[in-house]
User: What shape does this take?
Amino acid sequence: MRRIFLLPLMFVALAGLDLPAEGPVPDDKPEQTVTPQQADPDPDAAAIPDAPPAGKEKPALPGIAAPVDSEVFLAACESELRKLQVIFERLDPLTGENGCGMDAPYAITEIAKGVAVKPATQLRCTAALSLARWVGAVVLPAASALPEEVRLKAINHGSTYVCRRRNNLATGKMSEHSIGNAIDIMNFEFDGRKPIGVSPRAGDGNFEEAFQRAVRGGACLHFTTVLGPGTNASHSDHLHLDIAKRKRGYRLCQ
Assistant: This one.
């Protein structure tokens, strides 16, 4: 019975206190951390920024910074290219907007003995070396497995250095093409047979599909990014190969 009498007295006492008009504000929700597996590593997946609030300037679009290769590094790289019988020429520096350009672009005439690269290229030496190693270790052996007497004579590309954003969009990250780190392989020319172009070939069950699978799969050992037919509509007719550096050595092979 004593408790029943105490409750009304407690309400009377509280009525006389000055209580705050508003309660405590909860802490902001902590920022979510994104693991490398959750982050989209696709070099051709453009990130479109949110529209800025009315009356505020648009945020600056992300740029890119090309690595600066020392002369000692370039001399060693050129030595490796010569060992692989690459015919090359060092070009004048290139500069462009948003960080585009290279201090030391290279034109590759032959990527292996008797194997031309067409049209003219503008690549970083490191990218050219990855290309040469891929051709020597993967493409030439795959070509030698084709039926009849055939010889790889040329590799045709769609682009090397181009100052642009990924997927040629107006927004998003800059492409690895913009610093000479990438090449888009369109087709392979041979003596002794017709060219093999890059195209959707899944299920064809022929030597052309086998060759494309072999060179594409082997490219993942020499490039950090390999995209092609089946990745998305933008890569249905070529192999995109680049040497982008990512955290913990992550390689994107799609």
User: Anything to note?
Assistant: The longest helix spans residues 125-144. The chain is about 25% helix and 20% strand. The CA atoms of residues 99 and 191 lie 41 Å apart. The longest strand covers residues 182-191.
